[in-house]
Amino acid sequence: MKVAILGTGYVGLSTGVSLAEIGHQVCCIDVDEAKINQLQQGISPIYEPGMEEFLTRNIAAGRLRFTTSHRQGVAGAEIVILAVGTPQREDGSADLTYLVEAAKDLAAYLEQETIVVIKSTVPVGTNDEVRKILEANCHEDVSVKMVANPEFLRQGSALKDTLEADRIIIGSDHQQAASKVKEMYSPLKVPCMLTSVRSAEMIKYASNAFLATKISFINAVANLCEAVGADVTDVAKGMGMDKRIGNHFLNAGIGYGGSCFPKDVKALWHTTRNEEVDFGVLAETMRINDEQQVRLVKKTLKRFAGDVSGKKIAMLGLSFKPETDDMREAPSIKIAQELTKLGAHVAAYDPVATKNAKRVIGESISYADTLLEAVTDADAVLVVTEWQEMKQMDIASLGEVMKQVIIFDGRNCLDEEQLRNCKNIEYHPIGRPAI
Ligand code: UGA
């Protein structure tokens, strides 16, 4: 099948390489010339495990192309996928500017029977709006059939999540268009659910909001565990053994970040306000998350009797989660800002996100080239992102370089056996008894 994809961000690129991998002829279009030049050479603009291997293999096989020309990209395509960003506006609603622009750019090149798939995360009703824009700007003999096909991939495991998804949601009011999109995915052997356009749009937001709520719920349980002397890891494990609850997304920590959950929960909240529908749990999910992001700062402050000024605090991890260099809404931002405000000297280390972090956090903190450099002479260590390197660090040797070994583990990721065997350390996890 010939497929064109507009937008080469996380979603567009992962979809493009995955569709090429299963045998389709894919052309990815982006207005960013520098990005397209890089992609043509097999260089990924994002840090994503496996991406460059997929790019190289499929470009070499002649199944994957990149262009800035809509005319070239769309020519002969049976399916056109829109995968541009839908960032957050100041009021929390989704900004559809890029999508509207992409639809306008695309319209003139649509051929007679084109199926237009929206993969971007969009508020309910957007497919209808985009169809109107396309119809208003395309040739009169073109018939546009819209399909809402949201994406459920996670950064860091984007390709695996696309190729081995739990489900594929295909929302369309045209049976034929839905069948064609289903056929495009058929080599994947992933269950497809066909539904209406609006239900498909809603499934995406409801799924992300539910997962975010699950995280805020377990974080609230963690805080309660600390107060009553229970262990949230065991509590989550015990809860998760009930199939109705499930054991995923119950890791307590310092709150969710990234480019999706914070934005999508806010956008859904915005929709509930517009529609005057009461959905208070969303507001509570966001409130708990805001508080949780500074939980480590509060713990550190308490440990140092309310004064951290002049202390060197090593912050291990900057990206919002491991296996990505993405800093969007990363808890590290708030943690760095709060500690700096309190007069602490923050020395941060991250295996891949430092360059991006410098742009977001700036020079108010220092950036170490190695984990060892960050922890040397530190008064405390804060584990902020659960990179393998942090999980595997030699805790026993910290005593040789730190002033005193005090660890605040925001991800409950350090090896408990190692911790118990270490002398003269203080360990403060989230929702679990300190060691
Ligand atoms: C999320 C969803 O998981 C994907 O299904 C969805 O497709 C994507 O958003 C999107 O809408 O595009 P992503 O933001 O890449 O994916 O990352 P997640 O792995 O979901 O993690 C999000 C945040 O939640 C991270 O900050 C992570 O540390 C946090 N988290 C996750 C927890 O604090 N606890 C958990 O148990 C799980």
From TrEMBL:
Signal peptide: none annotated. It catalyses: UDP-alpha-D-glucose + 2 NAD(+) + H2O = UDP-alpha-D-glucuronate + 2 NADH + 3 H(+). Gene3D superfamilies: Cytochrome c1, transmembrane anchor, C-terminal (1.20.5.100), NAD(P)-binding Rossmann-like Domain (3.40.50.720). Pathway: Nucleotide-sugar biosynthesis; UDP-alpha-D-glucuronate biosynthesis; UDP-alpha-D-glucuronate from UDP-alpha-D-glucose: step 1/1. The keyword Cell inner membrane does not apply. Residues 314-416 form the UDP-glucose/GDP-mannose dehydrogenase C-terminal domain. Its EC number is 1.1.1.22. InterPro entries: 6-PGluconate_DH-like_C_sf, NAD(P)-bd_dom_sf, UDP-Glc/GDP-Man, UDP-Glc/GDP-Man_DH_C, UDP-Glc/GDP-Man_DH_C_sf, UDP-Glc/GDP-Man_DH_dimer, UDP-Glc/GDP-Man_DH_N, UDPglc_DH_bac. Keywords: NAD, Oxidoreductase. NCBIfam families: NDP-sugDHase. Belongs to the UDP-glucose/GDP-mannose dehydrogenase family. This is UDP-glucose 6-dehydrogenase. It comes from Mesobacillus maritimus.
